[in-house]
C-alpha cells in the first residue's frame, strides 16, 4: 500500500520497536477523491497579503494542480465544481501545540470542522500514537500530524506524568533516549521544564548529530539565549523569556536551580527586573537563530475567564466537571487557585507586549493552543479546533496584523516543519487542504470562524458535514451526575 506519510509511527511489540509508515490524513487505499474545482473564489495570498479575485483552484490526486483566473479555465468533464462566488479561500490552518493523547476520535473531526488541517502534537506516549495510526488508516478524514512522542525531562519533575515524560538522570541516558525516539520515527524531540543543564546540552548535541530538531520548554537550568544558540527550534508558552530578560537572571536561576517551583511565579518575579536592552538583545538572538515562539496566549486568557457553555457542550462531561471544579475553587477563595489567578492575571498584562516586540524584531511567531483533555486539567474553554481561532484573535490583540496572525497558522508553520513545498499557501503542487470563508480574514481575523467549507486532503466537506462532525455531551449537575 502506498502511503502519503508525514506520520511515521512506532509499533511496540514487547520491548522491540518496529517502524511502520502511516499516512497523515486519509489512507491511500480509500477511494481517491474526484478532481475538484472551486470557481470564482478570492484567493488570499498569505505570503504577501494580496487578494486574487475570481480565481479557480483545481485539485486532483490530493494536490492543487492549478490556480488560474476563472475566465481562463477549461475543466475536464469529470471535475466536481463548486461555485464560490463571494467567498474567500485560505490554506488549511495549523495548530502548532496540541496534545491528542487518547482523544483523537473526537479531536480529528473537531479540528477539521474548524479548518485545522495540520497539527504538531507536543507530547504523548507512543502507545497513543499507535492508536492514532489505526484511526488514520481506517480512512477517516484527519489532519496531518507531526509528533514528538514523550517529552524528555529531568529525574525530578513536577506533575503527574500525564504527558508521559521520560525522566533522565544523566547525559548518557539523554543521548540513548534521543536515539531510541529517532528509531521510533518521531518528527522532533521535545525538551521539558526540569532538565539539568548538562542533560539538556546532551539532548541538543545528540539531536544535532542525528539530524532531528528539538523544541519545547526552556528548562529553568538553561537560559533562553543559550537555548536559541544551541538550536532549540521553538519555545513554547514564552517559558524562559522573562527570566532571560531580567537584570537578575543569574540570581533567579541560581535561586531556583535545586528545587521544583511554580514557573509562572518565577516569571512574575523576573518581570520585576525586566531589562529592555537585555530583552532586545535576546529577541535579536531569537531572530538570528530562527527560534520560533509559540505563545499559547489562549491558555492564560482562558484561565482568567468563565466557562463558555457553547464550547463546554462539545467537551466530554468529565472534563466539563474538572473545569467547573476549578471555577468553584476560585469562587471559594482556594489559596492555590487564587494564587494561580493572581499570577496569571499579572503575567497576562506583560505577555502581549513581549509578543508584539518580538514580532517587530523579526522573531517568527506560530499559533498554538496547548489543547489538552486530561483529568485534572483546569483550563476552561480549550477545545480542539475552536481554540485556534481564539489564539489568532489574541495574537492580533497583542499587536500582530490579521495577515501576520494568519501567517502564524499557515506559511510560518509550513516553513518551520520543512514542508513549504507542500503546505502553507495556495499554489500548484501543494496539498489540497483549503478553508473557504464567507468573509475576508485580512479585514478581521475573526472571519476565520466563518467557515463555508473545508477541503481536507482533496475531500470536500460542506458546512452541514462539518457541523455533523461535532458532538454534544451532557452537562454535569451539582452532584457530579450527568443531566
SS element count, helices: 18
Strand content: 15-25%
What is the average per-residue confidence, as pLDDT, rounded to a whole number? 90
Gyration radius, rounded: 22 Å
Molecular shape = globular
Largest sheet: 8 strands, mixed
Tell me about this structure.
- With 483 residues, the protein is of the alpha/beta class.
- It has a domain at 94-145 and 236-412.
- It has helices at residues 104-113, 126-137, 171-183, 197-210, 224-229, 241-244, 249-255, 263-271, 276-288, 297-303, 309-312, 317-331, 335-347, 351-360, 386-397, 402-407, 411-417, 463-468; strands spanning 7-13, 16-22, 36-44, 51-60, 63-69, 80-83, 88-91, 93-99, 116-121, 144-147, 152-154, 166-168, 189-191, 214-216, 234-236, 292-294, 371-372, 434-437, 451-456, 459-462.
- The strands form six sheets. Strands 3, 4, 5, 6, 7, 18, 19 and 20 form an eight-stranded mixed sheet that branches. A four-stranded parallel sheet has the order 10-9-8-17, with helices on one face. Strands 1-2 form a two-stranded antiparallel sheet.
- The longest helix is centred in the last third of the chain and has 15 residues, at 317-331.
- It starts with 6 loop residues before the first strand and ends in a 15-residue tail after the last helix.
- Keywords: Signal.
- Residues 88-459 form the Amidohydrolase-related domain.
- Residues 1-20 form the signal peptide.
- Pfam families: Amidohydro_1.
Amino acid at each position: 500500500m502506498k502511503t502519503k506519510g508525514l506520520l511515521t509511527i512506532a509499533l511496540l511489540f514487547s520491548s522491540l520497536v518496529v517502524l511502520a509508515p502511516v499516512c497523515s490524513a486519509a489512507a491511500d487505499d480509500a477511494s481517491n477523491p474526484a478532481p475538484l474545482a472551486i470557481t470564482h473564489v478570492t484567493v488570499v495570498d498569505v505570503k504577501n497579503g494580496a487578494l486574487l479575485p475570481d480565481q479557480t483552484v483545481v485539485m486532483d490526486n490530493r494536490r492543487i494542480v492549478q490556480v488560474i483566473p476563472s475566465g481562463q479555465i477549461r475543466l475536464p468533464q469529470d471535475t466536481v465544481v463548486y461555485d464560490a462566488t463571494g467567498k474567500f479561500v485560505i490554506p488549511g490552518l495549523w495548530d502548532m501545540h496540541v496534545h491528542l493523547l487518547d482523544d483523537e476520535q473526537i479531536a480529528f473531526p473537531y479540528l477539521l470542522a474548524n479548518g485545522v488541517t495540520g497539527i504538531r502534537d507536543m507530547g504523548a506516549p507512543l502507545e497513543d500514537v499507535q492508536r492514532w495510526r489505526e484511526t488514520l488508516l481506517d480512512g477517516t478524514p484527519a489532519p496531518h500530524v507531526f509528533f514528538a512522542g514523550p517529552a524528555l525531562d529531568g529525574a525530578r519533575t513536577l506533575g503527574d506524568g500525564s504527558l508521559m515524560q521520560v525522566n533522565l538522570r544523566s547525559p548518557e541516558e539523554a543521548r540513548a533516549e534521543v536515539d531510541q525516539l529517532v528509531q521510533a520515527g518521531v518528527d522532533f524531540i521535545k525538551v521539558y521544564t526540569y532538565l539539568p543543564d548538562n542533560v539538556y546540552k546532551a539532548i541538543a548535541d545528540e539531536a544535532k548529530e542525528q539530524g532531528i530538531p528539538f523544541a519545547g520548554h526552556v528548562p529553568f537550568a538553561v537560559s533562553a539565549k543559550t537555548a536559541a544558540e544551541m538550536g532549540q527550534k521553538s519555545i513554547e508558552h514564552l517559558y524562559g523569556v522573562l527570566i532571560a530578560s531580567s537584570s537578575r537572571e543569574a540570581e533567579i536561576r541560581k535561586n531556583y536551580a535545586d528545587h521544583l517551583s511554580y514557573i509562572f511565579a518565577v516569571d512574575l518575579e523576573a518581570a520585576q527586573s525586566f531589562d529592555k536592552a537585555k530583552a532586545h538583545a535576546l529577541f535579536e538572538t531569537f531572530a538570528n537563530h530562527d527560534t520560533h515562539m509559540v505563545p499559547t496566549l489562549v491558555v492564560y486568557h482562558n484561565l482568567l475567564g468563565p466557562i463558555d457553555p457553547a464550547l463546554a457542550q462539545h467537551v466530554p462531561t468529565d472534563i466539563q466537571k474538572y473545569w467547573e471544579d476549578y471555577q468553584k475553587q476560585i469562587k471559594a477563595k482556594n489559596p492555590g487557585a487564587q494564587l494561580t489567578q493572581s499570577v496569571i492575571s499579572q503575567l497576562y498584562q506583560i505577555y502581549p507586549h513581549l509578543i508584539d516586540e518580538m514580532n517587530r524584531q523579526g522573531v517568527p511567531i506560530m499559533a498554538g493552543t496547548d489543547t489538552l483533555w486530561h483529568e485534572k486539567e483546569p483550563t476552561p474553554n480549550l477545545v480542539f479546533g475552536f481554540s485556534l481561532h481564539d489564539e489568532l484573535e489574541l495574537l492580533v490583540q497583542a499587536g500582530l496584523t490579521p495577515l501576520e496572525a494568519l501567517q502564524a497558522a499557515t506559511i510560518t508553520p509550513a516553513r518551520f516543519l520543512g514542508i513549504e513545498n507542500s503546505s502553507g499557501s495556495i499554489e500548484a503542487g501543494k496539498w489540497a487542504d483549503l478553508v473557504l470563508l464567507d468573509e475576508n480574514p485580512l479585514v478581521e481575523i475573526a472571519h476565520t470562524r466563518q467557515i463555508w467549507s473545508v477541503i481536507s486532503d482533496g475531500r470536500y466537506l460542506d458546512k452541514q458535514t462539518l457541523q455533523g462532525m461535532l458532538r454534544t455531551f451532557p452537562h454535569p449537575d451539582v452532584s457530579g451526575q450527568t443531566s
